[in-house]
Amino acid sequence: MVAFRGDEPVEEVRAEGGELSGLDDFVKRHNFRRGIVGSVRDLTACEEAALARLTIPMLRFSSDTPVPISNRYRTPETLGSDRLAAVIGASSLRPGKDLLIIDAGTCITYEVIDARGNYWGGNIAPGMQMRLKALHEFTARLPLVEAEGEVPGMGYNTETAIRSGVLRGMKYEIEGYIKSMRSKFPHLEVFLTGGNRINFDTNIINLIFTDKYIVPRGLNRILDYNNER
Predict the structure, then answer these.
(1) Domain residue spans in the chain?
(2) What's the CATH number for 68-214?
(3) Residue 164: which of 149, 176, 142, 179 has the closest Cα?
(4) CB under 8 Å to 93, separation ≥6 — which residues?
(5) To which H or E segment does residue 125 belong?
(6) Is 112 helix (H, G, I), strand (E, B) or coil?
(7) At 91, is the secondary structure helix, strand, or coil?
(8) Which is nearest to 220 in space by CA: 69, 49, 34, 40?
């Protein structure tokens, strides 16, 4: 849950356990006039009950919700709300720019919106933990390796071989996407969000904006856009 004052986030609260515990106090503390709900999963009965108790209007973000960009995705009903919100959040910060938005979380998503506000879609790849678990679960003997630890250029034992293979593989993958998209959009700007930290080369990191609130910013912009309408 993220509270905004105008266009800027002022507080973030994480509700654990699928109950939205603390939602009532959070809303009262900020004296909200309206809110928006965006989720990539179905809400639990407890979460629905918590939302129903609120006295402010709540917008449910779905594929039918009007958005301030041109969505060119061919199956908008299957597009994750977090993916679209991230695109809108980035474009609200850098309007009129060609953008690549990379979200390195459970999955790594790559989204592209051009300077005219056309969202063309993106790609989805396994995230860090998914890659580490897959190597363990889909092989007979490879161990489950933690992400924290040494990441040498070439692994010197099985643990470092797995960790370096995954983390360096992600790094090279992301850098490859950036270089490829910049060949199509020479003035491309890149946003990186998500929980996974990756050590990029200096010539790449200088091209990247980092903002952990890209998705909430997008939801906030969608809420304002629908209120204006």
Answers:
(1) 1-60, 68-214
(2) 3.30.420.40
(3) 149
(4) 191, 209, 211, 217
(5) strand 118-126
(6) strand
(7) helix
(8) 34
Q: Is 82 a catalytic residue?
A: yes
Contacts of 213 (CB under 8 A, 6+ apart): 2, 9, 12, 89, 193
What is the rounded CA–CA span in Å between residue 208 and residue 188? 10
pTM: 0.89
Q: Looking up tokens 């020479």, which residue turns up?
A: 186
Residue 13 token pair: 């609260």
Which of the four pLDDT bands, split at 50, 70 and 90, describes residue 201?
Answer: low
Q: What share of the chain is helix, strand, coil (3-state, %, to 5)?
A: 40, 20, 40
Of the candidates 24, 25, 64, 82, the residue annotated as catalytic is: 82
pLDDT tens for each residue of 76-125: 999 999 999 999 999 999 999 999 999 998 999 999 999 999 999 999 99
Angle between helices 128-137 and 158-184 (to 10 degrees): 130
